[in-house]
Amino acid sequence: MSAPVAGRRPLRAGPVSAVWRPRTAFVVLGGLALLVLVGAASVGRGEYPIALADVLRVLAGAGSRGETFVITQLRLPRVLCGVLVGAALGVAGAITQGVARNPLTSPDVLGVTDGAGVAALAVLVLAGTGGSAVGLLAAVGLPLAALVGGLLAAALVVGLAYRQGLDAFRFILVGLGISVALVSVTSWLLVLANVQQASLALIWLRGSLNARGWEHVVPVAVVLVIVLPIAIVLAFRLDALDLGDDAARGLGERVDRSRVQLLGLAVVLAASACAAAGPIRFVALVTPQVSLRLTGGSRPPLLASAVAGALLVVTGDLVARTVLGGEVPVGVVTVVLGAPYLLYLLVRRTRKDSA
Amino acid sequence: MTGAARLSAQGVRVGYGDAVVVGGTDGLDLDVVDGTVTAVIGPNGCGKSTLLRTLARLLVPRHGHVLLDGRRLDAVPSREVATVLGVLPQDPTAPEGIRVADLVARGRHPHQRWFRQWSADDEAAVAEALAWTDMTGFAERTLDTLSGGQRQRVWISMALAQGTDVLLLDEPTTFLDLAHQVDVLELVGRLHRERGRTVVMVLHDLNLAARYAGRLVAMRDGEVAAVGTPHEVLTEDTVRDVFGLDARVVDDPVAGTPMVVPIGRHRPATGRTPVITGVTEDAPG
Predict the structure, then answer these.
(1) Which residue from A minimizes the CA distance to B82?
(2) Which residue of A72, A226, A227, A315 has the lowest C-beta tally within 10 Å?
(3) Contact (CB, 8 A) for A104 and A349
(4) In a domain? residue A263
(5) Domain-embedded: residue A131
(6) Which residues form the ABC transporter domain (chain B) (predicted)?
(7) Is residue A299 within 8 angstroms of chain B, CB to CB?
(8) Confidence category of residue A198, pLDDT binned at 50, 70, 90
(9) Does B89 touch chain A (CB under 8 A)?
(10) What is the pTM assigned to this prediction?
């Protein structure tokens, strides 16, 4: 009687069951392999170039002492930071787009990025007076301020948008409004800043992996290890939320509670990414959509988005350091890649709406 | 009419903002009789959908409450309700590019957990729901490649996979042509006959409602104006009172259920004499 359902091969072990999605598995594993290669290539690039094979040997624990020092202390933290920040942004974007049911949404819309920007700039400009103080603030105060600023702005957006429930369209509109207000505060702070502060601020505002050490890696890693499993558990509820409020309630889902919880996770991920590397824009917007097209599902996939996000940031950083030369912030590259994609999405959407 | 109703509204008053839409005077009472197909009919804006949405706990009544198996609906955990009471909203949205089998499988949501997303029970229920609605061959098609009628079958299939004893359908035939309306209602009829499901649906077409529902609830201005079998409810007097329409009610030549024929004023010049006797022949124009 239990005929198999076409296209939904089961994967079962004891009480655990899932649908086997070979395409998603292939994308995630292939992406991870690619990530290791690009990451290793990125580790090898620098004033003292190290061949790919040597990098892999060092990572396996069998390198010379000099190479091991350069790699583990100087190069690896930067690349790992890129991997973790990219993964956090990818997942945050996938969750936000899943909740909003809108491919043009990202945690940026929740005010996370601009809130973090204002807070970081306020620390740089109002508290930092140059010299060693700036160095200390940049190391400890800046990431913390960015984290708090991002969380506060998002809380403000969700709080203002909540009216007997959290409507996706309303939080997008409120988020856009708050973002605009925050951007103008950013501009005002830049006007107040002296030349040295302003140049530091501008680099931070583009999102950069320059001079990132283990102290930047560890906090994002901790956040990801805690939040990603929760996100995977809660994302199951999107199966119902996808179908609209009425149908989701009909399937027994508590719509508003689930939406707030899921957005909360996205905000924490995006804010901690921002704290570690500054606002690297478009990663959270683009990678969930790319992953969606690669995996062929009906909603941005979490794990594939994480891998794609990591890959985009690490590749972008490698491109910034090799093709463009010098210390171009990775955020510049992701914007250059992301802006045309956003236009493509807009055009495609407008065509479909008018069709 | 009372007896052992699993689902009933007790003095409910529902509204949006300041306006009370249903149960304005002293609340609305309604028992959904088990194992029947009930159609809620009434003119536009009479509160049919509001009543259905209240029964489906999509709207919270200001006064009174809805009882499910003797318990207040708002006191039962949402997921538990969803294993007894299924809802097909008027305009459900499907994610872009979703395939038929994946959408039908969403109906299993209340039975699933994050680690148990495709159990043997889920698979059996989905396979059966697809077969029952004749959509097995479409399992791997995406929803946007299907016609409106086929899509509605998929949504009903999803509601079926949910495996609830009670099914609430909000205008399941809107936007469908007559053939597909009949097709969907035949499916609803089979659900009731072969599965013993209790169905409540909002319908606009009185003749189809009389044909496919064993029980009609006629509403006017947010109150129940008449309840009973189609023959009890669809009388010329009730149609005039509820819809403000002068009509003749005759027996449906196919099923013998009441059929409402509006009198109106317009008579096209067909050159044939009306079959229905007693209609005053007004001069056209």
Answers:
(1) A252
(2) A226
(3) yes
(4) yes
(5) yes
(6) 7-246
(7) yes
(8) confident
(9) yes
(10) 0.90
Kindly state whether residue A142 falls inside one of the protein's structural domains. yes
> What is the reported pLDDT for A354?
57
From A243, A251, A298, residue closest to B97, measured CB to CB: A298
Nearest CA-CA partner of A194 in A124, A136, A256, A144: A124
B141 touches chain A (CB under 8 A): no
**For position A106, which CATH number holds?**
1.10.3470.10
Determine the residue of chain B that is closest to A231 in CA distance.
B114
Answer yes or no: is A168 within a domain: yes
How many CB atoms within 10 Å of residue A289?
22
Query: What is the predicted ipTM?
Result: 0.90
State how far the alpha carbon of B3 is from the alpha carbons of B30, B33, B64, B223, B233, in Å: 12, 8, 19, 21, 20
Span A66-81, mean pLDDT?
A: 89
Give the pLDDT confidence score for residue B285 in this predicted structure: 43
Q: Do B98 and A298 lie within an 8 Å CB cutoff?
A: yes
Is A244's Cβ below 8 Å from some Cβ in B? yes
Query: What is the extent of the structural domain holding A231?
Result: 23-349
Rounded to whole angstroms, the maximal C-alpha distance in chain B is: 71
A167 interface with B at CB cutoff 8 Å: no
In angstroms, the CA A286 to CA B249 distance is 61
Q: What is the DSSP letter of B4?
A: S
- Which residues 92-121 of B are in CB contact (within 8 Å) with A? 92-99, 101-102, 105-107, 109-110, 112-120
Q: What does the pLDDT look like over B120-157, one tens digit per residue?
A: 999 999 999 999 999 999 999 999 999 999 999 999 99
- Residue B51's contacts (CB-CB under 8 Å, 6 or more residues apart) are B9, B12, B14, B22, B28, B30, B40, B219
Could you count the other beta carbons within 10 Å of the beta carbon of residue B123?
22
Phi, psi of B226 (to 5 degrees): -160, 140
* Gap from A344 CA to chain B (nearest CA, Å): 17
> What does the mean pLDDT of chain B come to?
91
Q: Do A4 and B123 touch (CB under 8 A)?
A: yes
- Closest chain B residue by Cα to residue A10: B118
What are the tens digits of pLDDT across the range B82-116? 999 999 998 888 998 899 999 999 999 999 999 99
Q: How many structural domains are present in chain A?
A: 1
